[in-house]
Amino acid sequence: VARDVLPAWTPPRVIVPYRRADARRRLLIALTDWHTGKRTLALMASPGFSIDILRNRVERLKEGVARVVREVSFGIEEVIVAIHGDMLDNPFGTTYPRQDRGQDLHDWQQLLESAKLLADFLYSLAGMFRHVHVASVDGNHDRTFSTAAVFMAMQLLRDFPNVTFELSETPFVAFERGRNRFIALHGETLRRGGTARENDIMKAVMMLGKPGYRHYVTSGHLHHRQVLQNLTTEGTGFEYFLCPSM
Length: 246
Description:
By secondary structure, the protein is an alpha/beta fold. The protein has helices at 2-5, 51-71, 108-126, 144-156, 194-208; strands at 25-31, 76-83, 131-136, 163-167, 172-177, 180-185, 214-219, 226-227, 238-242.
């Protein structure tokens, strides 16, 4: 089935926004917890979730990135896409009891859909930026399936020399730009209490950081957005961002 589906993938048409030739800045996009295949019912305060809703939100995300590029007063020479895992809900439906009853895609369908959605998104970035770098870690729902989806997207984009990939085999991925060190992890190992979480983040910085660098730590897992402001002071030397789901 995969042999029939993947070769039939047709890159979408991309309208390249205006960009200045003297681009010197970078944009980091944090993707996490897409949970491809998950289905929830609509409530009064929420439209629920389904594969159609996810597809629509990926399209909105592409439009949002294009809008940022058009509106900023400076050029962007590179976009870094940090993928924090749980891009699939779990192909086997075994993260918790009866998980499969809350899914509209199962097994290999989740993997192929996740790979196609990710490839479409990265293809749109490839038309907007001189260089796209993708750094990926696994989540607690999909484990190595996140890496498999990113790898499949990498194969679909193999003819794009401006797109590079870095797939981590550990719970962390770290990379640097200039004097800035970025550390991405899924986040299920971080404790939820303020002080406890700060200590866990500091341990990650001590393991993967570099003296004299400014460190930025990002994670997902909890599905909402948060910045721990107490970590942004000069003395700590790093900032922490909890990134939201789709």
